[in-house]
From TrEMBL:
Keyword Methyltransferase attributed: yes
Top-level lineage group: Eukaryota
Domain Pre-SET: 303-366
Protein name: Histone-lysine N-methyltransferase
Ranges where the record places region Disordered: 22-47, 433-454
Residue span(s) of domain SET: 369-517
Pfam families, alphabetized: Pre-SET, SAD_SRA, SET
Keywords from the named record: Chromatin regulator, Chromosome, Methyltransferase, Nucleus, S-adenosyl-L-methionine, Transferase
Species name: Aegilops tauschii subsp. strangulata (Goatgrass)
Predominant location category: nucleus
Location within or outside the cell: Chromosome; Nucleus
Biased composition (Basic and acidic residues): 27-47
UniProt entry tagged with the keyword Nucleus: yes
Post-SET domain: residues covered: 531-547
Amino acid sequence: TISTLSREEQKRAQAVIQEIAAKGAAKNKDGKKGGEGEAKEKRPSKRPDLKAITKMQENNSFLYTEKVLGPIPGIDVGDQFYSRAEMVVLGIHSHWLNGIDYMGMKYQEKKEYENFTFPMATCIVMSGIYEDDLDKADEIIYTGQGGNDLLGNHRQIGSQQLNRGNLALKNSKDNGNLIRVIRGHVAKNSYTGKIYTYDGLYKVVDDWVQKGVQGHVVYKYKLKRLEGQPSLTTTEVRFTRAEAPRKISELPGLVCDDISGGQENIPIPATNVVDDPPVPPSGFVYSKSLKISKGIKIPSDCAGCDCEGDCANNKNCSCAQLNGSDLPYVSFKNIGRLVEPKAVVFECGANCSCNRNCVNRTSQQGLQHRLEVFKTASKGWGVRTWDTILPGAPICEYVGVLKRTEEVDGLLHNNYIFDIDCLQTMKGLDGREKRAGSDMNMPSLHAENDSEAPPAPEYCIDAGSIGSFARFINHSCNPNLFVQCVLTNHHDVKLAKVMLFAADTILPLQELCYDYGYVLNSVVSPDGKIVKLPCCCGAPDCRKRLY
Ligand SMILES: *[C@@H]1O[C@H](CO)[C@@H](O)[C@H](O)[C@H]1NC(C)=O
Ligand SMILES: *[C@@H]1O[C@H](CO)[C@@H](O)[C@H](O)[C@H]1NC(C)=O
Ligand SMILES: *[C@@H]1O[C@H](CO)[C@@H](O)[C@H](O)[C@H]1NC(C)=O
Ligand SMILES: *[C@@H]1O[C@H](CO)[C@@H](O)[C@H](O)[C@H]1NC(C)=O
Ligand SMILES: *[C@@H]1O[C@H](CO)[C@@H](O)[C@H](O)[C@H]1NC(C)=O
Ligand SMILES: CC(=O)N[C@H]1CO[C@H](CO)[C@@H](O)[C@@H]1O
Ligand SMILES: CC(=O)N[C@H]1CO[C@H](CO)[C@@H](O)[C@@H]1O
Ligand SMILES: [Zn+2]
Ligand SMILES: [Zn+2]
Ligand SMILES: [Zn+2]
């Protein structure tokens, strides 16, 4: 029955796709680029998920053949899915077009459901199809289904009927049964254009009939989130519904249009709704690149590859060979993303003949996402994103003044100092976890005498007085970024570039954070006392102390 249902859905989806395609074709008869973007996205050949799900249906490899009520084992709050098809396969939501998934009359016969009224809703997807949905995260006003034209323009063209999913949601109020809630977010880089997150369990607490914005009858349901679940990663949805934020000039609490003063290729506004009067971040000079202090010599550029174009598919590329002829990046829509954290990543550098867009120069492309520096209530300044950032995407280099560690030792501890500890990470010293590729054969690794005490990081980056927005990215014990050492022009690990990459899908308005990675009791004041700093990151497994 699942498969007949899905086949039914598939037919409907096909009809919609054809309709959209026909519309698109009519709009640009001359076959030029442009026109209805939707049509291009939805053409079946561009939808591997639809192909995959059809195959899986044939092979009977769906996880559940019956619908499930309540939590699904293995699916946690915050889990993400790149298509509706994925959720169908996992039994989270078994319609790939409808917003409301429900158990039909046949479930009535089951003993365990004897006291429920059917049809009964099990899951809803909120993806902004209906123009008057209101979403306050813990409380949702959900519009029933039907009566809109399915063309993705959110228009209500007719009245809704109290049947199928709409009736199911109404019954769910009387049943008091659990409903899974999924939110869809716009994400340009996802092959479906969307990312879906599982936001946990809700109950329908109210329902009523209303005239929609266009004057048609629509059914409305109020859902409340159950308490005691992990908190939502998206507590605010004002930007995600419409994707693009309002203009920078309209931001509440705007204190600076662009803290980079035009240095970054995308402006980074700063907002402050905490202080009265609101003050901008101050006390530092913005620089998007590393400054080298006197007396430190950066090794000269080493030989590069002699590839033409972008190094892709070139087995002879000497840069790729450094990494076992397999570069650590994948490219999607011309944006490189790191496949996995590595001990160190080799990129193409100054003496490579490939072009600037080579995917193996991913960390050199500059800022890719719209970000905002904002004042937090308890943690000073922080940085959040306006765009959806995909796992492995480069965020920024940690820049400041490059110094010898011994130069800053003995000074009062400054929270903006970042030790270049790539070597220590590679060797798994000081409780650091070793990463893939740590045992590579690299001259600079063995230049030190290994049998001696582990060398402390020789160099550090001090962003105390000069730095980029990276200096505002806060610590979290449950971070969404990670630190990656990258080598480009030279191959001296002690002086590697320190880059931050996304560890997870980061949704609009989420704060960026990484694990500062201090070893407890490692910070000592000039008079020899251990300095302690409490952590306010708020993560459930917070270590309570930064150092
Ligand atoms: C249904 O309700 C009856 C009466 O309240 C109760 O005895 C029975 O256990 C319920 N069945 C289930 C499956 O909960
Ligand atoms: C790298 O390029 C610089 C000039 O850009 C040149 O002086 C140097 O010799 C080159 N190094 C190697 C190893 O090719
Ligand atoms: C790779 O290098 C070898 C030896 O230098 C050469 O024979 C071969 O043609 C090169 N292959 C490509 C694809 O450049
Ligand atoms: C490394 O240290 C050991 C013992 O301290 C010493 O015998 C050896 O010569 C050193 N090797 C180098 C290359 O410095
Ligand atoms: C990050 O938060 C801690 C408190 O948890 C605070 O002491 C620190 O100054 C913050 N760092 C930045 C860069 O704002
Ligand atoms: C020179 C180089 O690193 N080439 C690699 C670039 O990345 C692609 C993967 O996207 C590899 O296939 C290349 O070998
Ligand atoms: C030399 C080097 O770092 N090689 C690594 C390249 O990447 C693969 C995995 O992607 C590692 O297994 C190699 O050790
Ligand atoms: Zn190359
Ligand atoms: Zn290259
Ligand atoms: Zn190269």
